[in-house]
Amino acid sequence: MNVLYGRDYCAANQIDYEQQFTTSRNSVVSVISHAHLPMVLNNPSNPNYQKLKDVSLIVIDEDPTSSFIYTLGAARKDPTVTANSPITRDFLQTRQSLGQAGNIEQAILRLMDRATTGAFDAEAEHVTNRRRKSTSYSLTGAAFWKALAQELDGAVPDFRHFQDSLRAAVDTDTERIPADFFAAFTEDLASPKAESARFGLTWIKAADHTIRGMQFRGDVLRRIPRDTPPIVVLDAYASRELRQYERLFPNHTVTYVEEWPFTPLDIEHTTDLDDAEDEGEVDLGIDRVNLVAGKQPQLRNYLMAETGELTRGHPAGTLMLSYRNVIKHLEDPELQARWSWRSSPPLTALPPKAVETMWWFSGRGINSFDGRHVVAWHPPHRPVTYRWHTMAALAPHSPSDRNQLARHAFQSELLQMLHRGRQTNYPVGTPDRPRVVLFFHPGELPPTWATTRPFQPQLRFSRHAKNPLHPAAVQAIAAELHALLGGVPQACLAGLELYTAKPMEKALWTSIEPELRLLLKTDPAAPVKAPVLFAWTTHPDVLQHRLGEFKAADGSTTALIAGALHSADEPALHALTKHDVKVVVAGRASTTRVFAATTSDAERALRRLLR
After folding, report:
1. Is 469:549 a contact under the CB 8 Å cutoff?
2. DSSP secondary structure, 394-434, as one string
């Protein structure tokens, strides 16, 4: 088998780039990357094309769409970043001043000048980035071609100078503008419909109305000649309905073969931010920009702990998916202990490499994570320009088709990466079957591809609270105290540092703490009834590690405590109300609050701790 590497890899590893193709003629099997294929297969004048024509079959593993779309001036290694075109206003002004700009470049320059005055704001597609307080504009389709025709004013387009200008800006030893780009521009400019979205202008307007990033853009399909060897694409999510591969290979006859069983993924998910109040749904979404900037440390730590707890007890470990900058942030050595923050017993670390990471848009075909849980922190969203511009290479005349193709690309990337754990290779119900958990809502997925259900985290995070893990901690300890005693003395909640203790509660806790510890050690059912409190007798810090980091709250308002109990998942807590029980503390008569179903239950619960 012969592997054909890219130029960068060859340069770094002392491999003769050209010699690879000669060697491939004598190999039974040659493996070539997606990104490498168009450079060879759409250029018959390339001598390497002639060498690959000798093979009998080309097999492409998974969807190669991104490799067959050329974006002006961009070797797009990171599809989540909008590439900058070199055909800027400054570039065109320089070409014009040197007498090197033809009438097409001059017309585009005049359009840019008009755009800076706001002339096209109403016609251009736009989206506002609230964080950056700026709006991105895209003048494309019919509005762009109409405006360009007005500027040309009937003149014969000077395509030669246009090609010279673009090649002067883009062409290097390793990158060339494909002939398809100029052919598509010529076709679109001459089209009677004049509505293609393959070309246009983009710019960004700041809140103070200053303009930056003014550029001419283009996205076109690299068309593969008909005389290639037969091509087989192994893509489980190929869309016959969207004519995905007919668009990608317009010179070929496309046949879809679906003759194998398809086992859908079992996906657990949380909800979207906008739907966080829906009953039964949990919102764990964390903005990735805020995360990397360290602006939501409590939620970040919580998500790391939930991921760690999912991993604990699963020998294969967990694969965590997100964007590259998020992964790099979480690889900070100071954060690594957070995967093991909530543990039993406290501070027990996970094994090395128990949580591995990958970022979206990389390494789809890797099999080394077989058997791992897969946890995705963020959805694989591309910038809006992917829908506006990149998909225009496949659907230049239909905005609705572009939207559907972009949605399909999202689903394909999501599901392909979620399959890294190979969940469907493991029978349902077996202990080593990996789980797939999303800390976001994936939207509607075809039921043949995946079944979805809500994810239940081990602890509930109250997203909008200053003390977000406190309510769940109260509920967990209250449930255990109720199971042990039949009621929940507030002095216990205060003594366990869930609430700020008043002097009387401190004094009462001094008396009842030893009895509570004794009960936990002597009651044979205590490890089952009250596992956290049972562990607390040995590890004083267990509450913070089992229930999360929380601060003691003000316990003076009965309604706040009752509200936490009544919103618990444990139904037994819903019937508890406040009862004042008389006690004698340090020789003084007083009353203390106990939450129970009846006064008798409250008195009985306290007597068990005051022998």
Report:
1. yes
2. T-TT-HHHHHHHHHHHHHHHHHHHHGGG-GGGS-TT-TTPP
Amino acid 541 reads D
* Per-residue confidence (pLDDT) for residue 6, from 0 to 100: 73
Number of helices (H), then strands (E), belonging to the chain: the values are 23, 18
Please enumerate in sequence order all residues whose Cβ is within 8 A of that of 190, keeping only pairs 6 or more positions apart, or say none.
none
Say which residue, 289 or 228, is predicted with more confidence: 289
Read off the pLDDT of residues 207-227 as tens digits, 9 standing for 90 and up: 999 999 999 999 999 998 888
**Nearest residue to 216 (alpha-carbon basis) of 187, 176, 181, 180:** 181
Contact status, residue 487 vs residue 516, Cβ threshold 8 Å:
no
- pLDDT band of residue 322 (cuts 50, 70, 90) is very high
Q: With the C-alpha atoms ordered 38, 41, 43, 48, is the resulting torsion angle positive or negative?
A: positive
By the 10 Å C-beta count (0-12 exposed, 13-18 middle, 19+ buried), 571 is classed as exposed
- The partner residues of 137 in beta bridges, in order of sequence, read 126, 203
- Residue 239 structure tokens: 């869309």
User: Which tokens go with 450?
Assistant: 């995946």
Question: DSSP characters for 215-284?
Answer: EEEEEEE-PPPTTSPPEEEE-TT--TTTTHHHHH-TTS-------S--PPEEEEE---GGGTTSTT----
Measured between alpha carbons, how far is 500 from 556 in angstroms, rounded to an integer?
9
Q: What amino acid occupies position 71?
A: T
Helix (H, G, I), strand (E, B) or coil at 202: strand
Helix axes 141-152, 179-190, angle to 10 degrees: 80
Task: Quote the pTM value.
Answer: 0.88
Q: Which residues contact 24 (CB under 8 A, 6 or more apart)?
A: 2, 4, 30, 51, 52, 55
Please give the structure tokens belonging to residue 454. Answer: 């809500």
Burial environment of residue 14 by CB neighbours within 10 A (0 to 12, 13 to 18, 19 or more)? exposed
Angular region, 213: left φ>0, alpha ψ -120 to 50, beta rest: left
For residue 73, what pLDDT is reported?
A: 79
Q: What is the DSSP letter of 323?
A: -
**Cα–Cα distance, 116 to 215 (Å, whole number):** 11
Beta bridge partners of 218: 199
Nearest alpha carbon to residue 204 among 136, 139, 132, 138: 136
Mean pLDDT estimate for the chain: 89
Of 333, 313, 312, 418, whose CA–CA distance to 369 is shortest? 418
Q: How confident is the model at residue 551 (pLDDT cuts 50, 70, 90)?
A: very high
Q: Minimal CA–CA distance to 37: which of 72, 69, 1, 2?
A: 69
pLDDT digits (tens, 9 = 90+) for 59-90: 888 888 988 999 997 753 444 444 478 999 99
- Specify the DSSP class assigned to residue 112: H
Asked whether 139 and 200 are in contact (CB, 8 A), the reply is yes
CB count within 10 Å of CB 512 equals 21
Radius of gyration of the chain measured on its C-alpha atoms: 32
Tell me, what's the pLDDT at 276? 42
The residues, ordered by sequence, that sit 6+ positions from 494 with a Cβ below 8 Å of its Cβ are 500, 501, 502, 505, 506, 509, 552, 555
